Amino acid sequence: xxxxxxxxxxxxxxxxxxxxxxxxxxxxxxxxxxxxxxxxxxxxxxxxxxxxxxxxxxxxxxxxxxxxxxxxxxxxxxxxxxxxxxxxxxxxxxxxxxxxxxxxxxxxxxxxxxxxxxxxxxxxxxxxxxxxxxxxxxxxxxxxxxxxxxxxxxxxxxxxxxxxxxxxxxxxxxxxxxxxxxxxxxxxxxxxxxxxxxxxxxxxxxxxxxxxxxxxxxxxxxxxxxxxxxxxxxxxxxxxxxxxxxxxxxxxxxxxxxxxxxxxxxxxxxxxxxxxxxxxxxxxxxxxxxxxxxxxxxxxxxxxxxxxxxxxxxxxxxxxxxxxxxxxxxxxxxxxxxxxxxxxxxxxxxxxxxxxxxxxxxxxxxxxxxxxxxxxxxxxxxxxxxxxxxxxxxxxxxxxxxxxxxxxxxxxxxxxxxxxxxxxxxxxxxxxxxxxxxxxxxxxxxxxxxxxxxxxxxxxxxxxxxxxxxxxxxxxxxxxxxxxxxxxxxxxxxxxxxxxxxxxxxxxxxxxxxxxxxxxxxxxxxxxxxxxxxxxxxxxxxxxxxxxxxxxxxxxxxxxxxxxxxxxxxxxxxxx
Length: 576
Fold this sequence. Notes:
This protein has 576 residues and is an alpha/beta fold.
């Protein structure tokens, strides 16, 4: 507990000792009201002002035998991990290589022990990290020659080195012994086959590993178990089948303190399963006792008489029909706030009726992550403050804090940018941070005009257009664009990010700023959207288009930023 909360707790304890004797002189019904209001104030004080402190992993090391050519191709090294509430978006830290090949970066951790991935050039390797230091050494001469051109030092060095050799051998074995497609009529039979596949992989590990390493056993076997659960829940989601009670114990969520990418994926697939199969409640409105509780919590300046009536409803008294209009009028005093809070309360009520308390705890936490892409920071902050105090698992709390902290890093920048957007034009865009340019779309009178203006603006330059939608794939492609830009010859290609029309202006603005994707950002209206879909022959999203300096297409359907193989095929055509 931080110093602020300790001080608040001490204050509230002292206040409680004063309040309790004082209210004993009031009538019993008024006593209940005063105690309830005191508890509401008490809980509000503990809404966190900032996210909980996380542990820090330091990753340092060196690229040995670093040549000029290798440095130009890969001037930085990255480390990635995921958050259990948002496993579809990696948290990445990058370090620029020093002239001697050395590097150092810091990565925040939520769990005591977390799987991370290091990426350099063509090498991608998982390792275990914890509070402390992991050392990584890569041999530049062996990147394409050795199956394991990496050495680990520091925390869990022996386990990480053994896992690196297993990881390379395992992927090679899987290539020679691929998984077979599973056909099953029921979830029970599907799980049997998935478990058999998992056991086949565990058997390979047992035969491969000759040195006893308890931590490595836990890492590999838990990852294979979680991968099987993820595959199983994915099947249930697609088939809209409910989990059979007979196998529920085998497929329950792993809440241990050991966190891997496979565990994150199993939770993600469980979320998809819950969203796909949990039935709606017969009634789509909140019960009166919940509504009364929320009104007491969020509506200011309620009279004593009205508060007494609300407390009665919270405690189970039945509201009369003539009083529903009165409740509605109170609700309307903070309608925008209460509608958002009610959305969460209906969500948790729905899933609480179909899932265990442990599962509901996670689903409540993941509500925030599921909605961050479609709502503004103001709305998600309201949800964060409302749902956080009810979470039981401390790692869900820390994970939620981390996501909310990341989301709010740009809150001040977003607030100052919003009023300036009215003056931002295509020829005079708003530079919110270095290289990130935002422009209002003022060409709606003619859907072809914007395309003509873009070609004129970038005449004489190669341009890479990214058409994106506000979903996990669209946000991911924005995040990956900077890595691509860094790998291209400096100033060789202009980047333009074109957002489809359905995203609201405020959400688009926040997404563009948070992405830090360098280049020009625009949002289409509906008619322009239809025009570009036809002009660029867009068949799926996200989508990319590459044009030469004369305004001619190099390729419609160009490789997306993370498609290294696709870029290697057109590299000479673009840059020679």
